[in-house]
């Protein structure tokens, strides 16, 4: 499993636990849901958005590294 896959997995888990839909997270990030999907599916880097995702969902880098 790559770091990007681990990150995506923990994001999806946190979304489920918090009851937040992926499109709602995209709205919080002020990006299109498709762009968020591309980030989580490793089709786009989105490093600046990954930092904001970690902040919103309270994810530490150590959680997936």
Describe this protein's structure.
It is built from four helices and no strands. It is mainly α and 65 residues long. It has a single domain (3-63), classed as 434 Repressor (Amino-terminal Domain). Helix 2 (22-29) packs across helix 3 (33-40). The radius of gyration is 11 Å and the shape is globular. The chain starts with a helix and ends in an 8-residue tail after the last helix.
Low-confidence stretches: none
- Head-to-tail CA distance between termini: 10 Å
- CATH architecture term: Orthogonal Bundle
- Cα shape: globular
CATH topology: 434 Repressor (Amino-terminal Domain)
Helix and strand pattern: HHHH
GO molecular function: DNA binding
Organism: Listeria rocourtiae
Protein name: Helix-turn-helix protein
InterPro entries: Cro/C1-type_HTH, Lambda_DNA-bd_dom_sf
Summarize the structure in short.
The protein has 65 residues and is mostly helical.
Keyword list:
single chain; 65 residues; mainly alpha; 434 Repressor (Amino-terminal Domain); 4 helices; globular; Cro/C1-type_HTH; DNA binding; Lambda_DNA-bd_dom_sf; Helix-turn-helix protein
């Amino acid at each position: 499993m790559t770091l990007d896959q681990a990150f995506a997995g923990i994001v999806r888990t946190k979304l489920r636990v918090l009851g937040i839909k992926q499109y709602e997270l995209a709205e919080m990030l002020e990006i299109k849901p498709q762009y968020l999907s591309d980030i989580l599916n490793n089709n786009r880097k989105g490093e600046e958005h990954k930092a904001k995702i970690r902040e919103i969902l309270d994810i530490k880098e150590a959680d997936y590294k």
